[in-house]
Amino acid sequence: MDAGMKHALAIAxxxxxxxxxxxxxxxxxxxxxxxxxxxxxxxxxxAFANDHRKEIDELRSVTSNLDPSGQRGAxxxxxxxxxxxxxxxxxxDFLSDTVPEINTALSQCGTTPKAAQLFASLLRREGFDDRxxxxxxx
Length: 138
Fold this sequence. Notes:
This protein is elongated. The longest helix has 34 residues, at 74-107. Helix 3 (53-64) crosses helix 4 and helix 5 (115-125) runs antiparallel to helix 6 (130-137). It has helices spanning 3-25, 34-51, 53-64, 74-107, 115-125, 130-137. The protein has 6 helices and no strands. It starts with a helix and ends with a helix.
């Protein structure tokens, strides 16, 4: 590589340095803003959902197969029982692992969301039926 080429590459690197720094700064919103709280919470939701993908998918499948008319046959009663057991396991993991992490992160802002609201938000984000989400919120 000749001296002219090295010089041109050095100038290009210097020209791109501010763009790289601005890009790095733009990835995280200003702390304690509504945007930051959403961004921070979503990161915890992503980690939990990735770690519990199988359980989430199984629970969503069971809850989506419930009869929307409210009729309760033997199959629905069994599905409800199965969904309850799976939901308790998933909620237990969420409460013991993710909620404390979110509360620790958001405590610097003087806010700690309720665990039921957080779990309902996670389920909504994961595509759960509104009836299932409402059951958690209520």
